[in-house]
Amino acid sequence: MNSNKLIVFDMDGVLIDVSASYREAVRKTARLFLAGTANFDKLPDPLFSPEELLRLKQTGGLNNDWELTARTIDLLFTLLESPAGSVPSADSVSYKNAIRTHDAQKLADFLHKSSAPLTDLAALKKGGKSSFVEQCFRGDVKTGNIIKRMFQEIYLGPALFRSAYDLEPEFSRDEGLIDNETLLFSAAILEDLARRHTLAIATGRPKMEAEHPLERFGIGKFFRDVVTHDDCLSEEEWLYSENNLRVSLEKPNPFMLDLLSERLGNSFDQRFYIGDMPDDMQAAKASKMKYRAIGALFLSSASQNSRDILIKAGADDLIDSPASLTEIVG
Question: Which of the listed residues 121, 151, 178 is the one where a domain comes to its end?
């Protein structure tokens, strides 16, 4: 095998089409979170389009879809009327009681009129985050993070949620959206690349959620290593324990790419990172190993704006299809 080139893939929007899984989970979680409000029935369904969500994600700093969901809900709360002192404690009963004190009528009127509601709400928003949303996004699934728990129940479905967290679903028992995912890179293309180069993955997914599609589609064998959200968390906790320092090592931080280089060695003549978001491009350029940043436009190739955003973020090349990657890496 000729392994003088290291080719690292992001998963979402690059290896895997997540438009009907992660992205849809964001939209469903935002709607479910508002379900207890007064005049909830006046809200449009869905609340906003996939294109709007993509525009928000492309603003950067939201590579983690839990954070994207929380940011989306926070924007919606710009026009959600709530009484003073309605911040819940970190449990589902308090959240359910508190959300009933909110009125969605003003938000509903706005959403029905705006063609770009998240973009417009971002322009309207003044000041900091909603204290209600902040409280509901603290901790983890097992420690009272309402937003993250809703998202995980919707995305994973009951069986995988129980397996991952040893908890019964509380907010959603529908079939998990994770099984809506499809491959963007065919197994044949990956096999051909793996025969000539070294392939790896750097993804913001948790380890279990990264392993699931690799096993389901039978493509895990093509990748020498996989770095996930769990690796970032582990290193973040170590840094805190050793230096009392709280940092985020998720993209655009280059930690995952640098970690892969450490694990796989320094014998590569060239390194490539294929991603679909500005944070991916920035991580590639910030890496001490100086990856070549390749912007994937498989799901948004018609958007000149998407191209411009990736180029501005540092993309060295743009590709419109998986097959065109071979023309760049050889």
Answer: 178
